[in-house]
Write a structure and sequence with these properties.
This protein has 295 residues and is α/β, with parallel strands linked by helices. 27% of the residues lie in helices and 27% in strands. It is built from 9 helices and 12 strands. It has an 8-stranded mixed β-sheet, with helices on both faces. Helix 5 links the parallel strand 8 and strand 9. It is globular, with a radius of gyration of 18 Å.
Length: 295
């Protein structure tokens, strides 16, 4: 959704040669396409039915193009001292961008990806192959069902970035789902979730209230225009059962090529207003983006 670029690259990755034009293939969720990046020789944006899903640079998996993915990258960087391996569960696969980033920045990390679209997994594996030395396991299945199979306290970090088309399914937005995330996290582990919404931001406020019902500590990072309700876009919610490095996270988000804002504490309470937690019985999918969002 919200997207920006950071200049500069490093060499040394491996992968297939650049295609002559966009590569496309029908998958379970629609038409998957890889659109070449004009500025980076072996980089592509993955879209499904025209909605951007991921950006991958095979020469530099540490490069994160989408603004919201850079914010998730900051979370990966701050989740433990530099270089320490993590156990990460990715709910939603896309082009495996954040798993690649984790493997490149934290060697020997153990990661699991749960992605519903088997056709998309096959397409990405073929066109944008993972390094054989990375400890990344990709499972086909529903995110909530895959989460239920994770042992108690296994994960250092759970990242939820799940979309059916351009909407997050309802059963992945509830208090019951969030409680399952906390069960899978070790004490002190973090939950990061990509939320999309637009004015009047009712869905985003309800998601914050839902996560707060399960986790005592949280903060929110987003483009200021999204937080002011001026446009549809991404917001990254970070939660934990203990203190979060809010000051450092705020500094990094503010220093991005497309600077964002972090809300925490009283300011986040004020933003959330009187929103209530949402149980399974009342859960709804995230709003569909306006027709011109990707135009």
């Amino acid at each position: 959704m919200a997207k920006g670029r950071a200049k500069g690259r490093t060499d040394g990755g491996r992968g297939r040669s650049r295609p002559a034009g966009p590569a496309g293939e029908p998958v379970d969720g629609g038409l998957a396409e890889l659109v070449p990046d004009r500025e980076r020789p072996r980089a592509w944006t993955l879209t499904v039915d025209g909605a951007p899903q991921s950006h991958v640079d095979l020469d530099d998996p540490r490069y994160l193009d989408f603004a919201y993915q850079r914010r998730l990258g900051h979370i990966i960087d701050l989740a433990a001292p530099p270089g320490r391996p993590l156990r990460v569960l990715h709910l939603g696969g896309g082009a495996f961008t954040l798993a690649r980033y984790t493997a490149a920045t934290r060697p020997r990390s153990t990661q699991q990806i749960v992605e519903l679209d088997a056709g998309l997994i096959a397409f990405v594996r073929r066109e944008l192959p993972l390094d054989s030395g990375w400890r990344i396991r990709v499972r086909t299945g529903d995110a909530r069902e895959g989460l239920a199979k994770i042992p108690d306290g296994w994960a250092d970090l759970v990242i939820a970035d799940v979309f059916g088309g351009a909407r997050t399914p309802a059963h992945l937005t509830s208090t019951e789902f969030t409680a399952e995330v906390r069960r899978a996290l070790r004490p002190g582990g973090w939950y990061a979730v990509n939320v999309t919404d637009g004015p009047p931001l009712a869905h985003l406020r309800a998601r914050i209230a839902t996560v707060r019902a399960v986790f005592p500590e949280l903060c929110l990072a987003a483009d200021p225009a999204v937080l002011r309700g001026r446009r549809f876009g991404n917001a990254v919610l970070l939660a934990a059962d203990g203190p979060l490095p809010v000051a450092e996270f705020t500094r990094r988000v503010a220093g991005d090529p497309h600077p964002g804002r972090v809300e925490h504490g009283r300011a986040l309470d004020d933003f959330t207003g009187g929103a209530s937690p949402v149980p399974d019985a009342a859960a709804r999918p995230s709003p569909a983006p306006p027709p011109d969002t990707f135009g």
